[in-house]
Here is the input.
Amino acid sequence: MTYNELKEQENQYVMNTYGRFDIALDHGEGAKLWDVEGKRYIDLTSGIGVCCLGYNNEKIIDAITEQAHKMMHVSNLFTTAPMVQTAKTLCEQTGMGKVFFANSGAEANEGMIKLARKYSYDKYGEGRAEIVTLHNSFHGRTVTTLKATGQEKFHQYFFPFTEGFAYADANDIDSVKAAVNAHTCAVMMELIQGEGGVMPLDKAFVKEVQQFCRENDLLLLIDEVQTGIGRTGSLFAFQQYGIQPDVVSMAKGLGGGVPIGAVMAAKTCDTVLGPGTHATTFGGTPMICAAANAVLSEVTKPEFLQSVNEKGEYFKKQLMAMNSDKIQGVRGMGLMVGIVVDADERAALVKQIMDKGVLVLTAGTNVIRLLPPLSISYEEMDEALAIMKTVFCK
Here is the structure.
């Protein structure tokens, strides 16, 4: 089926909720993708950070296939080995306590919010349920996580939103303190604001927030949906910030291409959610956790994480070396890279880059975002960089 034929059927049968590019993808290998008409691309998006080990990864495919032959799904009323192994690896690698499995980043953040509110209810009773998040943050598309998102443009259409959120400025501890009151139970942050423009938080600020939370018995909630699972050069970004969160959410890369989310709690609050307080039909299903275990067996290797750091530095160095007046800055950690450009030029730059065979993302108002597979080769990186140079330096 040609692109036009496929698009015609999409327009007829699929809700138009995405601003899709004029590309219909068909198959992939490593960090390369091909569309339905055979055009080849270097993929610097990995499904918005999901396909962290690239396409057609044999370890993930074999793990899914083997588990599918045994048992794809079973109710959470029963225990399965793949689910237990995924939780065990995550806890052992981080020093955290226990894990709850969901299906997406928004679900993981919902679970994290529920845990924080119940923790406070159990200790203080009703009325202490407000959560402070940061301006320019993004936490999901559900009614609750939209309200948790610190961007006013997301607070429309779907009224009434879930209440109980206040907002503070990133990298301003006084703003955080001013947003906290007697009704506050937690502070929730992305360590790198991904959708907000690939904006890493200052390490000193993050440590100040942790200290303030400890002094006031507020839970520190870290949203690692985009930054987790090796993306920043450590299993989780918080490990590079020198903090120990109370609760961490994750999703995207954890499944390597299949849908999974998780909430990981510290030992001080890992029993807050008991039987009947939180659940989901598909969370922790064995086939999905088999994929997660295949991913974790790779991304927890020190040499793999070191390679992510090295590739990220290489990307940033090569982009800055282009000396293009179109590139106003490059920022990020590991293989989460933001190229700052003029807001009015961004759409045209993205189109030119994609037309030439490199898939990229956007973030904020003036950033071209790169989230390549963590397994991308230097050959694939060099090809993508060479193509981007023809756009940035013409």
Observations:
- The CA atoms of residues 225 and 324 lie 32 Å apart.
- The chain has a mean pLDDT of 98.
